[in-house]
Amino acid sequence: MTGEGTADAAIEQWSRIPHEVLEQMEPDGDFCRRHLLNPVLLQMLGEVSGRRIVDAGCGHGYFARMLTGSGALVTGVEPAQGLLTYALEKESQLRQGITYIQADLTRAVDLGPVHDAVVCNMVLCAIEDWRAAMRTCVGLLRPGGRFIFSVNHPAFEQLWTTWREHGEYRVWRYLDEYEIPGSYAWDFHRSLSDYLNELTALGCRIHRLAEPRLDPAVAEQAAATAPGIEAYTHLPNFLVVAADL
User: pTM for this structure?
Assistant: First the structure.
């Protein structure tokens, strides 16, 4: 299943995430974002006060709110109406000054190439036409601006579920592109070289790669309610890339 219909169907599925599930992710996302992704993203961004940042595929807006709380000037871009509605409700309550735009990253998004940074957090892996989305993100940067994206690590997708079943990680397909079923919509597997080669083809220079490892003490605390979570202390479930234009 490919094409625009697939993209629209995925956007509709993400839009159906229940409000109570989004509330449970306040104020700093779910477990993996809190302990694995956020610290790396913030370190790669550096000082954000006064900087113009796009949260590309911002979802329900948690990271945009975190950045704004540190003084950044944030624009959130999100196509899914349900997620965008939640983000707008939070903005109405908190009045942080975040600008939200409903737009699909695979199509033209006219915000001007004036931004200091674009963050695309766990979005490209959920988009079929990811090359178009990456091109849109890079096009929003000023010269010298930084593009940061995170995805499921291409070599260790579905790490937790596989570890719980086998006590180790197993992979049998890597070079093919395929869909990965998720709780609300699907993700897509691509190789590491797919992502990095496209990034350099767009004129970006890789600044840093990160494969976050869970703190063993955090894993020990979570083990009672999340059996198998120790997998994240041995293998990276996520890849985070920072590149400069």
Answer: 0.94
Structure tokens at 80: 């899914």
Number of Cβ within 10 Å of residue 204's Cβ equals 22
Which pLDDT tens digit goes with each residue over 103-140?
Answer: 999 998 889 879 999 999 999 999 999 999 999 999 99
Instruction: Say which residues have a Cβ less than 8 Å from residue 157's Cβ, sequence separation at least 6.
Output: 180, 187, 189, 237
Three-state DSSP at 131 gives: helix
**DSSP-assigned states of every residue in 58-92:** -TTSHHHHHHHHTT-EEEEE---HHHHHHHHHHHH
Domain boundary assignment for the chain: 4-244
CA distance 235 to 213: 7
Q: What is the largest CA-CA distance in the chain?
A: 49
Take residue 137 and report the two structure tokens written for it.
């993100």
Taking the C-alpha atoms of residue 45 and residue 125, their distance in angstroms, rounded to an integer, is: 21
The residue type of 96 is: Q
CA-based torsion, 79, 160, 44, 92: positive or negative: positive
| Long-range interactions of 68-76: CB distance < 8 A, separation 24+ | 68/96, 68/97, 68/98, 69/96, 72/48, 73/97, 74/98, 74/99, 75/99, 75/100, 75/101, 75/111, 75/115, 76/100, 76/101
Task: Look at residues 180, 197, 181 and name the one whose alpha carbon lies nearest to residue 189.
Answer: 180
pLDDT score of 2 more than 70? no
> Rounded to 10 degrees, what is the CA torsion of 35, 39, 41, 42?
150
Fold of 4-244: Rossmann fold (3.40.50)
* Residue pLDDT, tens place only, 56-106: 999 999 999 999 999 999 999 999 999 999 999 999 999 999 999 999 999
